[in-house]
Design brief:
The structure is a homodimer. Chain A has two domains: 73 residues, 3-Layer(aba) Sandwich (Glutaredoxin), CATH 3.40.30.10; 120 residues, Up-down Bundle (Glutathione S-transferase Yfyf (Class Pi), Chain A, domain 2), CATH 1.20.1050.10. Chain A contains ten helices and four strands, in the order βαβαββαααααααα. Chain A starts with 23 loop residues before the first strand and ends in a 7-residue tail after the last helix. In chain A, helix 1 runs parallel beside helix 3, helix 1 packs across helix 6 and helix 4 packs parallel to helix 6. The longest helix of chain A has 28 residues. By secondary structure, chain A is of the alpha+beta class. Chains A, B: Its EC number is 1.20.4.2, 1.8.5.1, 2.5.1.18.
Chain lengths: 234, 234
């Protein structure tokens, strides 16, 4: 297959495709930030995997058998039952597939500290993010980002001086902000004038070639946001 | 102090009490099932800790400084910043404080499998649980428990033949079911006739003296549910 994750979506009534019999299959949706957490982790570790995209508006029966919660990401490995939940998968995959680097901190306290920060940032940003994404409500998102900029980005990265687990796990939501801004008709400003630290952080992450390679253009994200079509641009 | 967790709640305007300078302080609320996850894990491992109870309807300012999400459980250790989120804490404490037994599985796949099951059971049961707890709506809870009984309890414990991490982490919600049933005026039946496997599982967990020792009576839970008062019975 070509770029991982670039295949069309499977829908209700479809037949289960042949899964990767040599390693990992990732059930994903190209624009789902939770699924991106897992693809991003595997990409920065240079761990190979195959992707099966799921139409979240018309889920295949064989997918619901794999994940009773019906959500992506999920994974399957030969001879093992499927697993799901993005953060459970991230920790599992980091441990099970060492690849070229370890992402989750080895030290118990530092690991817990970053996991707490992932939850705080997720809860602060996710709710207003979907207000902007689904209902064009931008004020709560702008205020949440002011708070994140001021209170939680005390160093170059959320993890500290170097990029870490927390940065990868929260990146998918921040990655989509330029597309949201482009659709907001001026109501939402994600510029370095307004958010100097967050924009510098975004640029620092995008200077990592593995992260850059998994990032869609602002235009493609905007196309998805307008149409809610996971096959957008294919 | 006496039985861990039996002290009165601290409210807004209170002064920070002296924290445990030799080890763990757990910020809790006696009847909070999330906080109970952490106390239960520490109890079965025989790890000592001190408890500071928080009035969740009138949170002390010093607590909100520790956890910007304002939730219990949270922990603090001398010289370290506080941590929170029940499942993050459970994994951290199991690793950092070995105590008399390991609770979280060592094997990466088995650990992930149990973490997935915790999420599935939490999502299936938690939402209808609060419908029953807050609004006396019992039908959705009964149906969810039918599903859990039939689909997810294929062995004596959720973890398998032996009690495991998933059992401890979901127990607090099930522990409260007899109290909910006693208040339901017949609308909710948590008997072995209706749920033979779940009731047998509850009895098996309660035969563990460490779990039994942290369990409140049906009457005390019912008193809390009626008054929503974390100091109930003190």
């Amino acid at each position: 297959m070509g770029v991982p994750g670039e295949s069309k979506q499977f829908k209700a009534g479809s037949t289960l495709p042949k899964l990767n019999d040599k390693g990992l299959t990732v059930f994903s949706m190209r624009f789902c930030p939770y699924a991106e957490r897992v693809r991003l982790l595997l990409n920065v570790k240079h761990v190979p995997y195959e992707v099966v995209n799921i139409d979240l508006k018309s889920k295949p029966e064989w997918f619901l058998e794999r994940n009773p919660l019906g959500k992506v990401p999920a994974i399957e490995e030969p001879g093992k039952k499927p697993l799901f939940e993005s953060l459970v998968l991230a920790e599992y995959l980091d441990e099970q597939y060492p690849g070229s680097r370890q992402v989750v901190p080895k030290d118990a306290y530092e690991k817990a500290r970053q996991k707490v920060l992932i939850e705080v940032l997720a809860q602060k940003v996710t709710v207003p993010f979907y207000g902007a994404f689904l209902r064009n409500e931008y004020d709560a998102l702008s205020a949440a980002l002011d708070d994140v900029e001021k209170q939680f980005l005390g160093s170059k990265f959320f993890a500290g001086d170097n990029q870490g687990y927390v940065d990868l796990m929260v990146w998918p939501w921040f990655e989509r902000l330029p597309a949201l801004a482009s659709l907001s008709e001026g109501a939402f400003d994600f510029s370095s004038a307004r958010y100097p630290k967050l924009v510098a952080w975004s640029e620092a992450l995008l200077s990592d070639p593995d992260i850059k390679a998994t990032t869609y253009s602002k235009e493609l994200f905007a196309q998805f946001i307008k149409g809610r079509d996971g096959d957008a641009g294919l």
